[in-house]
Amino acid sequence: MSAKRLVVCGGNGFLGSRICKYAISRGWEVTSVSRSGEPKWNTVTASATPPPWARKVTWERGDILRPTTYAPLLKGADFVVHSMGILLEADYKGVLQGQESPLAGLRKAFTSAPQPGNPLQRGVDGKDDIRPAETRQQLTYENMNRDSAIMLAKEAARVNTEAFVYISAAGGAPVLPARYISTKREAESAIASKFPRMRGIFVRPPFLYDSSRPITMAMAGMTGIGAAFNEVTRGVLGGFMGAAGVKPLKVDVVAEAVVEALGDTSVKGPVEVPEIEELANKSWRKSMA
Question: Which residues contact 117 (CB under 8 A, 6 or more apart)?
Fold first, then answer.
């Protein structure tokens, strides 16, 4: 039986790199696609030295907003994962060049101006940048959290990929615009309805943490307090708190669950936090057998 082939878009990130790790542990062939190729390891792990498993991953460069840069890499893939997104949006070139402040980006994020439709609605063919002209210089929730995932799913379905994982979210948060979570739900809906022959898996993780990123430990502690409050009050503020009221998970738990979900043909549709934990435990038990 030949090894499964996995392509992870965003495979050099905090979660994506760990998805690659657990897939390699199963003997799968793994390709990571990102703008920069191999990670700067000290940004995703506790060491600047690449871990041994990293040598078995093919680290490719591609732009998630330009399908022609990654589409050839999807050929022959059994599974594809979209593990990319933004928490806050801004005119990134303006910020980098000092022409726009991060606060200006926040103001844009909270505006209620009409947003362009997804690329399927706009008839985007994928031969160029998928962003509409009015947001071509921005990384918006629509561009990154929704449209890049829909176009990746379209390309994956075109080459008959068996299963597609979209890393969504358990919910928004009081400090984030509603569009952060609404664009993720729009992506889930479009992928499920437009590509029904491909098994769509929508993993909805809470806040993720790991000791290699100390700041995430502190934030996880605060989120854990919110989750405890939410449980004591029986979710009275659950809708307002969003992901801030959900128990945080170690990033490896979610990564292991993603790989387990891909390998389990019965897993389809939204995967909430309890199911994430169940899948990770199932994977762990297999590794101990």
Answer: none
